[in-house]
Amino acid sequence: MGVLNFEIGTTNIAFLFLEDLWIQFKKVAKVGELISIETCMEIMDLLYEKDEMSFLFRSPHSLSASILVASYVMAVPKQKWGFPVLAWVNFVTSHKEQDILKMAIEILKHVLEPS
User: Fold this and answer.
1) How far apart are CA 95 and CA 100, in angstroms?
2) What is the span of the domain harbouring residue 17?
3) pLDDT 10s per residue in the chain (115 long)?
4) Residue 64: inside a domain, yes or no?
5) Which domain of life is it from (predicted)?
6) Is there a domain that residue 82 lies in?
7) Of 26, 62, 86, 98, which one is least surrounded by beta carbons within 10 A?
């Protein structure tokens, strides 16, 4: 599989879930247009650089949902935070809002921490 460059790791699975969530989000929320898939991917790349963030990779679904929530917080102006993104993610993925919120906070701390 490695010779054929066949990649089936957590990164690819999480990317597929993230892309799907992003597309769905853009369809249901006008503020979804403010979030770019490139930003989401940059966040995912930053997470994979640090071993201490590996606890996030246990579930590609929850990782993807948490990245989308973190991207929402970073990209959408606070004045437009009317869309219930956590409730929507809970509805779409069946992950608890509290769990996604905790992961999103860890992601934001990691991404926004000064170098």
Assistant:
1) 7
2) 10-112
3) 344 444 445 557 888 999 999 999 999 999 999 999 999 999 988 888 877 777 777 788 889 999 999 999 999 999 999 999 999 999 999 999 999 999 999 999 988 887 6
4) yes
5) Eukaryota
6) yes
7) 98
